[in-house]
Design goal:
It is built from 3 helices and 2 strands. The chain is of the alpha+beta class. It has a two-stranded antiparallel ribbon with strand order 1-2. It is elongated, with a radius of gyration of 13 Å.
Length: 66
């Protein structure tokens, strides 16, 4: 799946491109997973929830110092 195709999926809020893979962010995972399944694009899929670090980065825009 290309980045523009992924951006057009219902429920996708943002996309990260890591070269060989895309990271799709959403608050509506059922809509995104359904759309991916309809396009037969579930191979290699990994699903994870947000961590506290993800929330911190989203809110502050910077990493937590150790």
């Amino acid at each position: 799946m290309t980045e523009p195709d992924a951006a057009a999926l219902p429920g996708v809020e943002s996309i990260g491109n890591e070269g060989e893979s895309l990271t799709l962010s959403t608050r509506q995972p059922a809509r995104v997973l359904t759309a991916l399944a309809e396009r037969d694009a579930l191979d290699g899929l990994a699903v994870r929830g947000a961590t506290l670090e993800d929330v911190f980065l989203e809110l502050t825009g910077r990493e937590l110092r150790s």
